[in-house]
Amino acid sequence: MENSQKFITQHLNFYYGEFKALEDISITINQNQVSALIGPSGCGKSTFLRCLNRMNDLIPGIRVKGSIRLDDEDIYAPSVDVVNLRRRVGMVFQKPNPFPKSIFENVAYGLRVNGIKNKKVLKQRVEKSLKQAALWDEVKDRINESALGLSGGQQQRLCIARALAVEPDVVLMDEPASALDPIATQKIEDLIHELKKKFTIIIVTHSMQQAARVSDITAFFYMGKLIETGDTETIFTRPALKQTEDYITGRFG
Amino acid sequence: MERHFIKELDALKMTLLNMAALTRRALEKATHAYLNRDEKEAQTVIDGDKEINDLELQVDNISLKLLALEQPMARDLRFIIGTTKISKELERIADQAVNIAQRSLFLCQHPPLHHIPSMERLMTIADNMLDAAISSFINEDFQQAIKVRQMDDMADKYTLEVLQTLVEYMVKSTPVAEKRLLNTNRSIQTIIISRCLERIGDLATNIGEHVAFIVKAINIKHQKIDFE
């Protein structure tokens, strides 16, 4: 299954009212790879990320043209169950946002929403998710304490565990380490390397070094357009386009 | 406002250009000392080598600092990697110039050998190759960079001619044993000089290849490329 196509977007255009935020984006995201989206603020990278699990649906006045296919299924088709889509395509945000509940309940939340009530199953799935998020050893003895007592880096890994608990195919990460210190950031990055064995990961980051360190594929966005995409090593050593080169070497604008 | 990093890159470039200028001057002086049997000039080449060695260390230090502190990408990364490699080649070219100067000092102590036209051609082509390699770096000129290695065949040809001329001379020189020893010694010293020049051609070729990597991000080492 490795490197098979997970997401395919074709001629994707996205509007906030009259404002065209994405223009003609055609890109393929492969399974079990980490794809990094880079570009200056306002370039459309987060908007694009949020199209992939229809998080943008929550904003009034948006319009989507073109297609986004997940496992060859149009995610904007009327028959699509958005709740199920978001289970398959999980999301981790910039700022850790645990619920004001216990560590256990944070991870179990999505499972309960999905109708899992069996305590043994819940316990197993919570433990598995916390292990996948490399947090289990740090919290196993205080699993019923409030998640708000965790450090920022631990809270972010808890949010990752919460996203993983419902067994998604894809995890979207919107600047997951930008609010964390270097050690917590390194843990998240190491975790991303581990997670790609089981999940497809798409990460938005402002840190070029982070994109270079964690991703297999890098896509450069500018003013709503996908300028260049390619394997990360190529993009960061010999990009094809001057615009990409100027951005990653800090000579932009 | 110009970025601090760009200024640092410019400083790296200027240090390398300074090193290149001194290296080229060392080669010119070494060949001049040989041709004109000028001991004083030969000695200045030997004395001047330390300055070039110091500049190599400076290039290394600046590059290491920029890699660690700026985490450069793409062309900047290639520029820094390429520059450290070029400085290594320049330092070795300067060592070859010192070698030529030392041989010339020996030759100045004895009567001159007969005129060898191929040696002068070899000196000219080695100098032209180094000049072209440095110019390709200054102008970031890919075409000029790959031209350097196209000149290398001529350098090899002239080196072989010098060798053949002097081997012939050594065989035929004189039946007098004492004179034959001196003639052989002078010939071998001269052959070593030709060998140094041939190596300088190789090292200039390497510089051209590093420039090609900086400019076009392609590695042309050990392979022919389509448009050559």
Task: Give a brief rundown of this model.
The complex is a heterodimer of chains A (253) and B (228). Chain A is built from ten helices and ten strands.
Order of helices and strands of chain B: HHHHHHH
Query: Mind summarizing the main beta sheet of chain B?
Result: none
Give the chain pair forming the largest contact, with residue counts: A-B, 13 and 13 residues
Structural class of chain A: alpha/beta
Uncertain spans of chain B: none
Order of helices and strands of chain A: EEEHEEHEHHHHEHEHEEHH
Walk me through this protein's architecture.
The complex is a heterodimer of chains A (253) and B (228). In chain A, the strands form 2 sheets. Chain A has a 6-stranded mixed beta sheet, with helices on both faces. The model of chain A has no long low-confidence stretch (mean pLDDT 94). Chain A is built from 10 helices and 10 strands. Chain A has a domain of 169 residues: Rossmann fold (3-Layer(aba) Sandwich). Chain A has 253 residues and is of the alpha/beta class. Chain B is mostly helical and 228 residues long. Chain B has one domain: Phosphate transport system protein phou homolog 2, domain 2 (Methane Monooxygenase Hydroxylase, Chain G, domain 1, Up-down Bundle), CATH 1.20.58.220. In chain B, 85% of the residues lie in helices and 0% in strands. Chain B has 7 helices and no strands. In chain B, helix 4 runs antiparallel to helix 5. The longest helix of chain B has 40 residues. The interface between A and B is medium-sized, with 13 and 13 residues.
